[in-house]
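User: Can you help me understand a structure? I only have the sequence.
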Amino acid sequence: MLVTMKELLKDAMEEGYAVCASNVWYEWSTQAALDAAEESGSPLILNYNYMPNVYRFMDYAKRWAEKVSVPVAINHDHGATFEEAMHCIHAGFTSVMADRSDLPFEENIRQVTEIVKAAHACGVTVEGELGHVGEADQEDNLNTALYTDPDQAAEYVDRTGVDCLAVAIGTAHGKYNKGIVPKIDFDRLRAIEEKVSIPLVLHGGSGGGDENLGKAAKTHICKINVFTDLHDAAKDAMIEAGFEGKYLPEIDDIAYFAYKDKLKYYLNLFGSAGKAKKYREIAPLEEGTERSVLK
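Assistant: Let's start by predicting it. Here is the structure, written out as tokens:
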């Protein structure tokens, strides 16, 4: 069933688990993600950020998400412009990320506030980001100057009205150098939690370390993004199997199962497996009535 990300994260925050936001790109990865969630009885967030193909993606992703028995939100990851956000809302995304983390604080607030007003008018969740989650291969995660400031986080949430906030506390996007496991600043996370009441988001989940991620999922980190590990699981499985003498559908199947199995691992690690049983489908409510899919 298709739901808003706000609905998913509310339950995750109350129950002490995190929902995985798995990046997808083609049909087979989308199907693998949905099947992993359904087989695990887990809520799921489909992350997609390949502009300008959002309408083509939503042609199948929305239909498939509506048919599965588990709650699924569809989020546009790292949206860079107001126009991108509006395209995604028009296409049917239930959440958009307004990433202005590279801008000065005041400009970040100004631009994100505009998107929040438009998105909320359409019932769409908005994720903001404060601090900067850089690239793992450049060791940006070691630069504490890029981390989220707790006091600024409180002001940012209050002034923008975002529904959830991505924080920088030691992880990074992409693949870490061999043997490196990031050190997450849990003291900073606790300080942010004391000042911010909305769900928090952790980007750069791939390679973040099972102990780190499992611990984070029990805090106010209610959404953890995973891309590189899922991508590499599929890629490595295809390379290991070899392409000689294989039909393309066989290769797709190899990628599909590798992606699905890796995602199921993360769903268990984040504590979301089995949580979908709390949800149920409901009929559309009258205008002005608050919607919830929770029993």
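Now, to help you interpret it: The chain has one domain: 5-278. The CA atoms of residues 118 and 264 lie 35 Å apart. Let me know which part you'd like to focus on.
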